[in-house]
Specification:
It is built from two helices and no strands. With 195 residues, it is an all-alpha fold. The longest helix has 78 residues.
C-alpha cells in the first residue's frame, strides 16, 4: 500500500465545513447580497408567471363563453330568418290575392252590368173566347180604303202598355267596388326588436 500524506484537522473545523456544505445544499445561492438579489428576482419571475397563467386561463374561459354565446345567437338568428321567410312567403301570397281581386274589379268595371229587360206581360182576355173579347155595343166600322190608320185602331207598342202587376221594380244598385284594405303601417325590420 502506498501511503499518502495527510494532515490532521481538528474536529471542530470538520464539523463547521460539514455545516457549510449542508447549508449550500439547502441554499445553493448562499447568503451573499448577489444571491439575495438573484433569489428575489426568481421569486418575482415566479409570481409574474403565475399571474400570466391566471390571465391566460381567464382569457380561455372568456373565449369559450363567447363561442357558446356566438353559437346561441347564431341559432336565434337562424330561427328569426326562418320566421321572416315564412312571413315573406305569406305576404307574397296575400299580395297575389290582392292583385287578383284588383284585376277582377277592373274587369267588372269594364264590362257593363246587364240590366234586366222587363218584358210586359200580355193582358189576359176577360172572356174565355179564343177570338178575343166581344165588344158590347156597336162595332166600329173599318176605315175606308185610302185613309191612314189612326193609333186608336192598333194595340199600343210593346213596353208602353200598362203592367197589370204594378210598376217594374227599380234596377238593383250597382255592386259596391271592392277596394283592397288599407296598407298597414310598416314598422321595418328593427321595429320588431323594440320593447
Amino acid at each position: 500500500m502506498v501511503e499518502e500524506d495527510y494532515e490532521l484537522f481538528p474536529r471542530r473545523e470538520i464539523e463547521k465545513l460539514k455545516e457549510e456544505v449542508e447549508l449550500l445544499k439547502r441554499n445553493p445561492i448562499g447568503t451573499t447580497p448577489v444571491g439575495k438579489d438573484l433569489l428575489s428576482s426568481v421569486e418575482q419571475l415566479n409570481s409574474s408567471i403565475n399571474n400570466m397563467l391566471e390571465l391566460f386561463k381567464n382569457a380561455a374561459d372568456q373565449m369559450k363563453f363567447e363561442e357558446k354565446e356566438k353559437t346561441d345567437s347564431a341559432a336565434r338568428i337562424k330561427e328569426l330568418e326562418e320566421k321572416l321567410d315564412k312571413i315573406i312567403d305569406q305576404n307574397y301570397k296575400i299580395a297575389e290575392g290582392v292583385v287578383a281581386i284588383a284585376d277582377m274589379v277592373k274587369e267588372m268595371k269594364k264590362k257593363p252590368i246587364p240590366k234586366p229587360v222587363s218584358h210586359p206581360k200580355p193582358i189576359p182576355p176577360a172572356s174565355p173566347s179564343p177570338l178575343g173579347p166581344t165588344p158590347v155595343g156597336p162595332s166600329p166600322s173599318p176605315p175606308p180604303l185610302g185613309t191612314p190608320p189612326t193609333g186608336l185602331d192598333f194595340p199600343p207598342p210593346l213596353g208602353t202598355a200598362p203592367n197589370p202587376l204594378g210598376p217594374a221594380p227599380p234596377p238593383p244598385p250597382p255592386a259596391p267596388s271592392i277596394m283592397p284594405p288599407p296598407k298597414p303601417e310598416k314598422k321595418g325590420f328593427f321595429g320588431k326588436f323594440k320593447k
